[in-house]
Amino acid sequence: MERFFKLKEHNTDVKTEITAGVTTFLSMAYILAVNPSMLAQAGMDSGGVFTATAISAAVGTLIMALFTNYPIALASGMGLNAYFTYSVCIPLAQQGIQDPWRIALAAVFVEGLVFILLTLCRFREKLINDVPKNLKYGITVGIGLFITLIGLSNAGITVASSSTLVDLGSVVSAPFALAFLGFLIICILQHYKVVCPILWGILATWGLGMAAQQLGWYVIKPEAGHYSLIPQFSGMSFMPEKPALFAFDFSFIMSNAVQFTVIVFSFLFVELFDTIGGLIGIADKADLLDEEGRLPKASRALMADAMGTVAGACLGTSTVTAYMESCAGVGQGGRTGLTGVTTAVLFLVALFFSPVFTAIPGFATAPALIFVGWLMMGSIKKMSFEGDMADAIGGFMGMIMMPFTYSIANGIMFGILSWLFLKLCSGKAKDIPPVMWISGLLFALRIATMVG
Predict the structure, then answer these.
(1) Strands, E, within 108-154: which ranges?
(2) Any stretches that span the bilayer, and where are they (predicted)?
(3) Taking CA 173 as the corner, what is the angle to CA 170 and CA 176, rounded to the nearest 5 degrees?
(4) How far is Cα 270 from Cα 408, in angstroms, rounded to an integer?
(5) Mean pLDDT of 174-184
(6) Mean pLDDT for the chain?
(7) pLDDT above 80: residue 272
(8) Euclidean distance between CA atoms 414 and 446, whole angstroms
(9) 5 vs 18: CA distance, rounded Å
(10) Largest CA distance in the chain
């Protein structure tokens, strides 16, 4: 194990790596409940989607772990599953098309194949390595703010407001109070250097939630997304349901080539830059970037991501991508692929114990996301806000546009476009790498499709 994962070289050990893998899994286990629920609205069988989600996450994470030795976990991406359901399947169903999810799965499959080709020609690797340093640090900070906002939202600490866009949630609600208490627990454990503070924080918050449910403070309201926190084993089967294997419908392309191309491009665009942003953020936090800000074995990491997407489509789920919740495991000390192997194994175990893992509420993992967001904010100290205006503003736009538009891809888009524009206006066009020109063109096409 030492020889394969090079634990000593990365200043870690087996116990730390396994603990980090468990932490990563618990931080992203919500996808096992959310993805089946969301794709069921697209007409898919929720039981089969649960199986596909768990297996594709295990496969993708395992490929990443063994192929790159990075502590990065993969699963069906949030946002991409929403696009799958609400922007592809439901509109197609309204056109009278039967089983539109088969068309969406075909689009995800094609997207994965395109990603493999882009990785083989090293375009994605060049992009991830040629992004300017300041923008990379801005992306890391932006992702930190982004996942902090996700954590605050999951706990009801931050809520939507028609007058001020965002507002403070109900301070007397159990999710709000327990998530905030869980965050403070993690901070206290970190102060006293207790082993596994993030993991203990998640479990403590979940335990307090179960107690709150028994006392009547936490009230079950499925319509509000408040489900029972206590695992229910009565009447359940421990055998996973069969997923929709290779359920592609390519016949739609024959008469709707343009529409299908737009669907694939939208999947492709969001996944391309979400993955790049995620890898940069996780790698920076895990100290995987070299002195020039480049990610060693970037092509392998990107190939693992592409293969995960293809596997997910074949199994019957939406696009598989690198998860920012991996930062929770990194914050716990995870530095090698052993963290990913642990997470992958737990996804397979989850197939047979779904009531346990799907009972972990969003507000229990919220403290971990908020704490990791704080850790990732440390990269702002590496940013330069002076000197080259393109670097300074590019990093700034990458940082602020992620949380304020709720999209990693949007943050990268505005960061790169700002950088390109200011480089051109300052007479430094010769300093722009070819891959950044291509990225600018892709973003221009993306904006054109958004306008359309």
Answers:
(1) none
(2) 20-42, 48-68, 103-123, 135-157, 169-189, 198-220, 302-324, 344-375, 396-422
(3) 80
(4) 8
(5) 96
(6) 88
(7) no
(8) 12
(9) 12
(10) 70
Question: Which range scores top for mean pLDDT: 46-55, 95-104, 324-333, 338-347?
Answer: 338-347
Structure tokens of 255? Answer: 């008469």
Using a cut of 0.85, tell me whether the model's pTM lies above it: no
Contact residues for 436 (Cβ-Cβ < 8 A; gap 6+): 130, 131, 416, 419, 420
**Chain centre to alpha carbon of residue 122:** 23
Contact, 82 vs 295, CB < 8 A?
A: no
Q: Quick one: tokens of 204? A: 């403590």
DSSP string, 333-389: T--SHHHHHHHHHHHHHHTT-HHHHTTS-HHHHHHHHHHHHHHHGGGGGG---SS-H
Task: State residue 408 phi and psi, 5-degree precision.
Answer: -65, -40
SS3 state at 231? coil
pLDDT band with cut points at 50, 70 and 90 for residue 418:
very high
Q: Supply φ then ψ for residue 226, to 5 degrees.
A: -100, 100
* 267, HSE (Cβ side, Cα atoms, 13 Å): 35
277 with 128: CB under 8 angstroms? no
